[in-house]
Amino acid sequence: MPNFDCIEKPLSRLFNVYGRFVTKNPYLFIVFPVLISGFFSLGFLTLEPITDAIYLFTPVGAPSKVERQIIHDLWPLTNGSYIPGRAVTQSREVQLTIRAKDDGNVLLKPYSEAIHRLDQFIQNRIRIIHDGRKYKYADLCLQWRNEGCPGAKHIQAISEFYQKGYNITYPTLKIGSFSGYIGSSLGGVAVGRDKSNRLVLASAKAWLLVYHLRFYPSDISYISGLWEKSFEAAMKEYKDPYLDITFFHSQSLAEELKRNADSLIPRFAFAFSILMAFSVLCSMATVSGTVYVDWVLSKPIVAVLGVCNAGMGIGTSIGLLSMAGFPYNDIVGVMPFLIVAVGVDNMFLMVAALRRTNRLHPPDIRLGECMSDAAISMFITSLTDAFSFGVGTITSIPAVQIFCVYTCGAMIVTFLYQITFFTAILGLFTRWESENRHCVFFQETISANDREYSSIFEKIFWLGSRADKKPQKESAASYFFQNWFAPILMQPVVKILTLVWYIVYVIFAIHGCLQIKEGLEPVNLLVEDSYAVPHYHVLENYFWQYGAVVQ
Predict the structure, then answer these.
(1) Strands (DSSP E) along 163-316, which ranges?
(2) Which domain of life is it from (predicted)?
(3) Helix%, strand%, coil% for the chain, nearest 5
(4) DSSP per-residue letters across 326-367
(5) Where are the domains of the chain?
(6) Is the bond preceding 336 in cis, omega lying within 30 degrees of 0?
(7) Higher pLDDT pick, 258 / 20
(8) Chain Cα centroid distance, residue 228
(9) Residues 104 and 226: beta-carbon distance below 8 Å
(10) Which of 15, 71, 115 is nearest to 377 (CA)?
């Protein structure tokens, strides 16, 4: 028979020797990881998240990025050269979509008048004070040959033409010698044909308004950003009896992405607490034949420190990469959920392996056996997980690349802490278990054999089992899987059913992969209650059928 354990056996022997060494020198392996974790966690102070959504979620070297930059370099949006409708950058701008509350035709007079009031409100009522000077839209807007701010004059003109019965050609408006593209400004359009068989505007459901602001030099860009924030606050309070309004500005996506990441913090704290409570509960053992807690075999503090071990790995990896100058984005906030889950799983592997050892053996022998048993599984799991995310680092999408680098690093660091810090903790508690000490207060417990002579308080809080020469009884879960589940699974009929079920699963998986829609919708990056979500929905439903005019 060929021998396939050429890697497993040497690793098992290595971890056995290593486990014994750690048991004899536990404090070294506790102090150094804690100090290293504390030092690198200072990297959080230098953390500077990247918030540019276009950079993060567009592939490196994507044609859209190259073409956008070429257009921006050749035809920059500078004051005097700005043409409304021809902008390809969103350096500083605000957008609004406007629909009738009754889903009516926005070209009719009540709605055009309401839009005019809104336009005047934006241009004249929204203002900020910076360094003692007042700024409103007219002071910050991009202009064409110093002819003033574009505003929404085109909306009033088109609405008046429509109300007077003129035929308005679509998507390019032609009136005499004047022509202008309106395909990207009107949404939900219904068209008819005139006597010349040209498409003419019959009705429309929505308008798109865009207000471009100056974004150069940097001090003016900063002031424009302040005006955008004032615009956001004002539009959240603005009400109109005729109009449904959605809005967006150049900072919205970055800010809402950060808000999305920030919303994970309380969830992570909750998940961390739940995992800790679950780990503590699962680490508790009872005295055989009773309902009393076995305060020698139970390991609640070990469970808590096992979860904290994962937290140390997360803090160290983020801090280390931040100190090294590696970029960070808020999507990395999802990573701790993965690391804690893997870390807790590995912790249970080690605790379970320790419980399978003979309590009569010395602590170093027990931990050596524990490590030779569990460390191989942990090593393979951590290696494959780190490799999977390591492969993700070669992607061309910066957000995915950054996430994979941080996750891969956290996987590796957490595993290193598990075979150092957590192994040393387990070694200490194994030594105290051999001395029959209480797992919380570290004082000698009352033997479970003497419980008949103990008080209720002692039975509840101070009983502990002693090492027994008789083999330990297997747990109910082990008994079920060994004596019921495995024999049933090995029956020929069950094998066939399992194979059929797996084939069905693979078919559905392949079908699902073929139905995957490529691309990333910005709306999927936002929290559900974001003010930008309705705006993206309106854009998708009404305005993304037509693009910008060909220059």
Answers:
(1) 172-175, 178-181, 186-187, 190-193, 199-203, 206-212, 243-249
(2) Eukaryota
(3) 60, 10, 30
(4) --B-GGGGGHHHHHHHHHHHHHHHHHHHHHTS-TTS-HHHHH
(5) 8-49+263-468, 55-257+534-543
(6) no
(7) 20
(8) 26
(9) no
(10) 15
Q: Is the pLDDT of residue 232 over 90?
A: yes
Phi and psi at 192, nearest 5°, equal -130, -165
Cross-strand bridge partners of residue 78: none
Task: Please report which helix (H) or strand (E) contains residue 24, including its range.
Answer: helix 8-24
Pick from 38-42, 128-132, 289-293: least confident: 289-293
pLDDT for residue 165 is more than 50:
yes
Q: Is the dihedral of CA 162, 167, 173, 179 positive or negative?
A: negative
Both structure tokens of 368: 């050596």
Q: Which fold has domain 8-49+263-468?
A: Multidrug efflux transporter AcrB transmembrane fold (1.20.1640)
Q: Can you list the positions of beta strands (E) in 35-75?
A: none
26-53 tens-digit pLDDT:
999 999 999 999 999 999 988 888 888 8
DSSP notation for 162-188: HHTT---BSSEEEETTEEEE-TTTEES
The 8-class DSSP code of residue 522 comes to: G
Peptide bond just before 217 cis, omega within 30 deg: yes
Letter for the amino acid at 69? Q
As a whole number of angstroms, the distance between CA 284 and CA 263 comes to 33
